[in-house]
Automatic annotation (TrEMBL):
Keywords: Metal-binding, Repeat, Transferase, Ubl conjugation pathway, Zinc, Zinc-finger. Gene3D superfamilies: 1.20.120.1750, 2.20.25.20, Ubiquitin Conjugating Enzyme (3.10.110.10), Zinc/RING finger domain, C3HC4 (zinc finger) (3.30.40.10). It catalyses: [E2 ubiquitin-conjugating enzyme]-S-ubiquitinyl-L-cysteine + [acceptor protein]-L-lysine = [E2 ubiquitin-conjugating enzyme]-L-cysteine + [acceptor protein]-N(6)-ubiquitinyl-L-lysine. The keyword Nucleotide-binding does not apply. Belongs to the RBR family. RNF14 subfamily. InterPro entries: E3_UB_ligase_RBR, IBR_dom, Rcat_RBR_RNF14, RNF14_RING-HC_Zfn, RWD_dom, TRIAD_supradom, UBQ-conjugating_enzyme/RWD, Znf_RING. The gene is LOC106457509. Residues 274-515, 278-326 form the RING-type domain. Pathway: Protein modification; protein ubiquitination. The keyword Metal-binding applies. This is RBR-type E3 ubiquitin transferase. It comes from Limulus polyphemus (Atlantic horseshoe crab). It is an enzyme of class 2 (transferase). Residues 9-131 form the RWD domain.
Amino acid sequence: MDNKIAQNDEILALESIYDEKMFLVDRERKNPRGWFVAHTSVPRSLCLVCNRDGKQEEIQINYLPPVILHFELVAKYPSTSPPAFLLSASWLTLKQLSNLCSHLEHLWKQNGGEVVLFQWTQFLQEETLTFLGINRCLDITSLMTWKPKKVYNIDGDKRHMLRNFNESEDAGTRKASEPGSTSYKQFQCMKKEKYVVDQNQGRKTHCDHYSHEEDISKVNVRTCQTRQVFKPKTTRGQLEFDQRAVLEKKSGERLLSYLIEYNQYKLQETFDNEWHFCKVCLCEKQGRECMTFFTCKHIFCKDCIRSFFEIQIQDGKVRFLSCPEDGCLSQALPTQVKDLVSPELYSHYDRILLNSTLESMSDIIYCPRQYCQFPVMLEADCNMATCPSCSFVFCVYCKMVYHGISPCQLRLEEKKEIFEKYLKAVGKQKQDMEVRYGRKTLQTLVDNTLSEKWIDINSKKCPHCNTSIEKRDGCNKMTCWKCSTYFCWLCMSRLSSTSPYLHFNDLTSPCFDQLFQGIFNPADEDDWEFGQFL
């Protein structure tokens, strides 16, 4: 069969198998050129290994960036010559890339003059790691520490040092890139590259400048002086490493960050395309319509979780945005809440959460000015506080203007006496008290004292945070609204967070079989009233 016909048939077959995100060919050239993005199969137990600051780190990964095969179908292919090609990757050493290049050439020889591109693509996708002996660990320490020595062009002896781009240009271009994207227009490997040659190391690239092209056939190869030497090759060359092996060089920390970000991107992409069952609405939905609680990994659809969050936030229960799974205590992250609810509701949630957190801190007090109410940090063993918002200096005990070493105007013992005296006072006696203490101060004292009395009569203190709890109905197993502590309403002892009802089932417990003790049953009252007339 004629070489040209065989090449056209092979291209048509590959285009029917792979989409443009993986395989693309420029037919306008005399010798067709193209790219293939090989997503290598990664074993489940693979981990990245690197040595930083003398400490070895291991990071579990599920995906690796693809290996890029840039090929050119020369006139003698497939009858007497393999395709010319370049093989590039950021996470393989030049030695490993050279071994892959040699094996690709070996596969063509085995085929005996037949087309081989499909066999190459299958090998790069399915057998790359197995061929290189990478089973459990991928050590990238040498790639993170490698630095080029001297840069030469191949045709002459003149040295060409690599020109670095400005940091502002590099940073500005990276913002436009999407980490981990697999399309030719977005993937980081599809960019203008500067190929340089180390006199001892072979071919390398320096990837500091990203440029996403509208058409992959328009990607330009940037070199130090000559572009010809960086075209795909059919032979190994005379250097220590295969001249068809191209190392996409990134600095140490950037390489590690790139691999981690790509892995996270692919994990999210896989999750978004899978179907998941929501235990709330009992429907199957795609991952992009679902949310995962990071601690417990339970998955629910966003519509159900959004409704649940909105109800809890509107009721002021910002500390109860937990997983709906029965018995699960995993909390949603603030970023997850922000993605689901409206901006106005999230602001309300953020404000309540902040206030609730500040109130639980013993060294925080609010500014007593009604229009301010700014949280103020207290100093140890000091009765003076200064509001950073309105600069009001006040006493932390009586909440009045700071009075130095003078005693507070209203002490705890005095409050009860003044309260009772003010309630009984009439006429001039009442006016004299208002002049001395202030009418507003006395009215506040009356309101607070009455409130405290009502709270003391109708509530009990949480055994953990000392918050007042009122019981309206239900069993004697109580949950603190502030700290979520379980406790017994009868004996006020703290209950187990995992088995709170064991307290009422234990024979040795003073509250055994008294879970519903004291609950009013309307049916019992009806029976009693009916019995009075018998």
